[in-house]
Amino acid sequence: MDFARSTVLVCGGTGCTSSGSQKVIKEFETQLAAKGLEKEVKIVQTGCFGLCALGPVVIVYPEGAFYSMVQPEDVEEIVSEHLLKGRIVTRLLYDETVQEDSIKSLNETNFYKKQMRIALRNCGVIDPENIDEYIALDGYKALGKALTEMTPEQVIDVIKDSGLRGRGGGGFPTGIKWMLAAKSPNVIGKYVCCNADEGDPGAFMDRSVLEGDPHAVIEAMAIAAYAINAEQGYIYIRAEYPIAVKRLQIAIDQAREYGLLGKNIFGTDFSFDLDIRLGAGAFVCGEETALMTSIEGMRGEPRPRPPFPAVKGLWEKPTLLNNVETYANIPQIILNGAEWFQGIGTEKSKGTKVFALGGKINNTGLVEVPMGTTLREIVEEIGGGIPNGKKFKAAQTGGPSGGCIPASLLDVAIDYDSLIQIGSMMGSGGLIVMDEDNCMVDIAKFFLEFTVDESCGKCTPCRIGTKRMLEILEKITQGKGTLEDLDKLESLAYNIKESALCGLGQTAPNPVLSTLRYFRDEYEAHVVDKKCPAGVCKALVSYSIVADKCKGCSLCARQCPANAITGEIKSPFTIDQDKCIKCGACIEKCKFNAIIVQ
Amino acid sequence: MLNAQQTVAFNGTKEQEAKLMEVINRYKDTKGALIPVLHEAQGIYGYLPVEVQAIISKNLNVTMAEIYGVVTFYTQFTTEPKGKYHIGVCLGTACYVKGSGAILDKIREKLGMPEGSNSTPDGKFSIEATRCIGACGLAPVLTVNDEVYGKLTVDDVDKILAKYSE
Fold this sequence. Notes:
heterodimer, A: alpha/beta, Glutaredoxin, Rossmann fold, Ubiquitin-like (UB roll), five-stranded mixed sheet, four-stranded mixed sheet, 24 helices, 14% strand, B: alpha+beta, 7 helices, elongated
């Protein structure tokens, strides 16, 4: 390998790719070639660094200069100034890392300071398409250790003792799941599956792990297969994640080539191979029994449990199914031991959790924190607070299965149990922040629309019950709701929770229940006062012009698509409420803040 | 009955059919082959009209009812061809709280798409409210074919559509 004096890491995760990192890489290649530096400077495309809001992100080593929002036009300057002359381009640095005469290490910035990276440890560090880089950082060492130094029982004991719980949302103890699958008699074949059908809107943890460190998941699945005595595995991944699918396939091919998948791995009797199965856009397939039905090539409808997958799963064979992030923890636990993992987190929730921070927050991106970190630390310190000086209203965790956490509970230490207690759930790790401009009834309606759309239709409570709930919510947002509707909504919600067939249906009412619990006043404002305090629900707002502020410039009137605004130049204009379609075009154009929504 | 739902006449070529047969033969002995075959078939034809389903049914030995059931269950499979420019507006939570709903409305209005239809009559544009595409850092986001547009406001819609309207 050629020795490179500098390395340029460019994020190739979906976030940065969407903001144009591929063009940045091309430009680096062109510019380096033009300056004759292509042998001295190495370009590496990595997985996600986490700070998606600042993408495309570029880090230049050995200096560790963290350049943010790099455009192709900026590349020439980085090459000629930094890489050729050794002068760091300060204007492009992430401003938190700028110090008077040096650059601050990334780990000292607010975004990274409180993070602890176990599942994401290689993301943004290695080239995910190169197995040698993974191996150089202890990759496949855990598999070697398991196969040559440990019995399957010992592997299961380590996982059990570590206290690792399922990261897909449910939080079931992983070691016990493995033990149950191992105990099932092996008639002809068992399966190990990976759930990468990350369907929660606004969650992208699993995708980032697969894009940034696919070998960690492959290695963990091989360890799991050894523990339960399986020979075949499947990774079920969303077809909406093309980059992750591509890197995963490259990683599987490389592992096969190195003999880390296939027959007689590490010269032992153990054989294991893996295949990818693509989802096709059905949220319910994230539910374990539905996922297996889908791998079998059918409509992804859930099956009643028991029998549990550990007894009768894929093609009626005993099957072990874990989530991507759960697997990503496994190699580290095998290498460092159960006690090390035990030492991180809270009493009943060990280790770390990856969250996808999104919504009304400055540092949108991917964060991994020890269990027990408070929501306030995540939102205010790591997330950098709410943009535009707005006030925090709620944080939504757990996607369509979770709930909204109000400001009064910002100091709750996050773990599986505390979140359930306050009416939300860990879920897979989506964490969406909302500010005062978001209407909580509208948010509840948004999630219900999602579940109604995604309900597979197999069981009545979910198929019809969620639809009825949505109708009530629509009534409320249109100003036609009554106080009785709120009670009806609540009792319907509890009925669905108790009677739905699968996890999707049983948790579908959570967004409504949690908003009813913490934001009942907003519901009541819609029902009693016929007002939407956040000004979101169109039927309940009206636009008007404040005469004192209006300069009579007529800009709004020219913008109005319904010709609802009239007046004479240089005197206050007025809005005809009968004609107004509440599109908001006027408010965006007004330079004097003279138009208000009530 | 199925034919009645199709708005565009099927005009698959011999080459496409040969490609599809190659795919079917490759998967013939694979367990649970139907979904991977449908994915590749949609890659070849752009959509899954009943004629394509019939070829798969005959050669993979799966009933039409089962294929139709699977095709209509999964949102990624479509029985209607996409427009020349396919617009996806992300309605994931992160985009939704930042106002992507209004952007979707604006595009539909600008393109004159009637309620219930997801494409323009000339077949030039089609639209889809997508699930989270994972570009939450750029919310709200839309895609036109493979091009991603992020950090949008309603005002950006005109500019973006103008690019594709020649």
